[in-house]
Task: structure prediction
Amino acid sequence: MPVLFNQDEAETKEIAPGVKCQILLDKPRTSNDRIMLQRILLEPGAQMPLSIANGSFAWTQLLSGEVIITAENIKDHLTKAHIALLPPDFEGTLSAETSCEVLLANVPDAQRFDESFTKNPPGYRCVDWTREPVLDAEHDARKRIYMVTPKMFDTKAFKGEMIIYPPNTNAPNHHHEGAEHFQYVISGSGTVFLSEQPHDMKKGDVLYNYEMERHYFENHGEEDFIFVEFFVPGECKTIWVPGADVCAWMPTGQDIEGRMPVRDIKAHSSELVTTPDDV
Result:
């Protein structure tokens, strides 16, 4: 059965002065150690050490506020527009310039999901996802922005994207083979159908889907329903229910702000198991 809950249901603990933590996904909640997801709350001026174990990697995404991430030869200013990959053996600090809300995810033993990870581990990367190209769904009004791909982060151990459902939008029923994935609702509200059973979703909800779990989303609200989703490993097969339109994603030639994006992505199908080279 999928796991669905709101972040407000998770226990909040103070782990350092001005730093609070909620564990959203871990082995006790999902029964496996593919992903550990934390929500970190920092007060202005607070600092949080970041230490990534050998063989693991993590990524961080700001939900609100501004932080500076520092390490040897690294000093990056992060806003809601950024997602940063923290490679194996990374040692650094997250320093809050304002009140901040941060998602921090960790994948232990990444070699399980990318055979080249040990010999060629990815390095530190920080990406402004708002400059990435927007793709439109061929058969409906959904929009997709890739936030984590092999081309962007040099690993197939995970993949991430933002999906936008405008009002009165829905997608076909489907399931995935070869990966498990979670969604975190950024804004708006919608309905997720899990094995055809409806469940309401709202901002701050977390949904963890195992392999073979049928699911799809609908938005009948008055504002966009927006969530990020991350797959571990990054490549999997999508199986649509019989008769459903296979989802194809078409380039718009624009980023989320209507500007020319930093790169081009050609049209492709969600049926593909291997991530296209330009993604």
Observations:
- The chain has two domains: 3-128, 130-269.
- The first strand starts at residue 3 and ends at 6.
- The chain is about 5% helix and 50% strand.
